[in-house]
């Protein structure tokens, strides 16, 4: 069967500098569209390592505004101006939750025209703080609020052939996440810290596994690993609650989704 969606983990890490784990970012390729989810520091370097040019990205989804998910945004916009702004032939839509317009206006106050794109090449789309569905050329994009910051969203992307994946963003346990992940082909879920170091607003392997089991996802990838995670058996902790196919994210890991 032909691939419907290719997902590449660009960054499986956090705010902590790491050569192995860049900050959060995921690339989605489906049809002729390339969609970036989150843009933490190091994203452009990982895109290059993946053979992807920044000018090819048509949509940039931001799960929330913490710097490990958005820190490279000004540099990304600035880089689009090189050498004269015309290498970008398609518009870039930045899509995020409540406050993205103010967030961008704040960046504009600091960076001014350095982060302007050519006329009609940049759209800012602010999603309402409720379950939402948008139809684009190659994807259906669904979003729901999750438990982290007030703007935090989880995303579900469905391709032309009906395959889907869900990206949790940063979150604590919540029913909305189970809801949006229901029966998805691939669930990319944050698992920031080991079970014994659980903090409010983040998941651990066994809680992520519980959500995946309740949502009956077909495949689970855990990601967003603080260094503490690399010192324990994350897989074993997740197996307390989830028995399906399980992978631990690594930078530049690739997953193809095809209709079965
Ligand atoms: Zn966060
Ligand atoms: Zn984070």
Give your account of this protein's structure.
By secondary structure, this protein is α/β, with parallel strands linked by helices. It is built from seven helices and 14 strands. The chain has helices at 43-49, 67-70, 73-79, 100-111, 175-181, 205-214, 234-238; strands spanning 5-11, 25-30, 33-37, 57-61, 92-96, 122-126, 132-135, 140-145, 153-158, 164-167, 186-190, 220-223, 246-248, 254-257. Strands 6-5-4-3-2-1-14 form a seven-stranded mixed β-sheet. It has a seven-stranded mixed β-sheet with strand order 7-8-9-10-11-12-13. The chain is globular and about 55 Å long. The chain binds zinc ion (2 copies). One zinc ion binds at residues 64, 66, 148, 170.
Provide key terms for this protein.
260 residues; alpha/beta; 7-stranded mixed sheet; 14 strands; 20% helix; binds zinc ion
């Amino acid at each position: 069967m032909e691939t419907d969606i290719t997902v590449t983990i660009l960054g499986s890490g956090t705010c902590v500098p790491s050569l192995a784990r860049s900050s959060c970012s995921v690339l989605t390729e489906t049809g002729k569209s390339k969609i970036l989810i989150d843009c933490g520091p190091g994203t452009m370097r990982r895109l290059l390592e993946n053979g992807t040019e920044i000018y090819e990205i048509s949509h940039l989804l931001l799960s929330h505004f913490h710097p490990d998910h958005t820190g490279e945004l000004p540099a990304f916009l600035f880089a689009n101006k090189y050498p004269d702004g015309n290498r970008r032939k398609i518009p870039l839509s930045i899509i995020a939750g409540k406050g993205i317009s103010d967030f961008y206006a704040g960046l504009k106050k600091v960076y001014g025209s350095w982060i302007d794109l050519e006329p009609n090449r940049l759209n800012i789309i602010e999603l309402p703080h409720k379950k939402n569905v948008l139809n684009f050329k190659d994807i259906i994009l669904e979003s729901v609020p999750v438990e982290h910051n007030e703007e935090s969203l989880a995303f579900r992307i469905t391709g032309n052939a009906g395959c889907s994946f869900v990206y949790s963003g940063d979150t604590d346990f919540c029913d909305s996440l189970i809801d949006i992940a229901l029966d998805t082909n691939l669930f990319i879920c944050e698992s920031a810290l080991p079970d014994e170091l659980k903090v409010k607003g983040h998941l651990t392997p066994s809680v992520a596994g519980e959500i995946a089991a309740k949502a009956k996802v077909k495949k689970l990838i855990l990601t967003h690993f603080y260094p503490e995670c690399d010192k324990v058996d994350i897989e074993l902790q997740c197996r307390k609650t989830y028995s399906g196919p399980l992978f631990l994210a690594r930078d530049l890991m690739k997953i193809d989704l095809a209709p079965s």
